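Q: My labmate handed me this sequence with no annotations at all. I'd like to see what the chain might look like in three dimensions before we decide whether it's worth expressing. Could you predict it?
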Amino acid sequence: MFYQLPLENVLRFGDVVQGYILAFPEVADSLENKEFKININSNDLCVVLTPCCSIRDVINLVPLKKLTSDLFTNPFLVEDITRINRKMTQFEAMKASRRERLTPEAMKEAMESPKDYQWKSRFVYEENARFKDYDIVMPNKIVHKVNSYWIDFKDVHKTRCTFVKSPEVFPYESKLLQLTVDTRRELMDKLHEYYRIPDEDFER
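A: Here is what I predict for the chain of 204 residues:
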């Protein structure tokens, strides 16, 4: 199970929420240019990326976004798009057209490669009745009916919400979906890996 039912009246890491406003600054063309603009986005749905124990009046939110067409050129992902959330071999991450060009030796090497996260900053949220359906049109005009969305760890926004007092005191109507413990662990593991500093960076 990807989502937990029934929902708990507790705001947790990984929850899908609605009604929050995101804002982010955009610097013009250089740090010397003091001109900037602030984009305000009342995104339909966001995901909470603040640990439950730290939820107070300031929380980290990331918007849910539509998937992209390139994902549907990969037969491994077409079978289960949430495989992006877990480690896979280089072969499993390849689109079909690239697999067809591999030599037998290269294919063997790709299939036996160590598993790793391939879309390192992305995490897919499985389809749910709470989400809006949308179409993804491929270059060959094939249309995929899609209901899954994903988040990008690079899109995290800090939002001050004085009405969020604690994990237990928040607008209950804003919470739409809650991850199971196993799914939340997958999200936590991938986020941890994304922010992990490679050992070689300490040697420079």
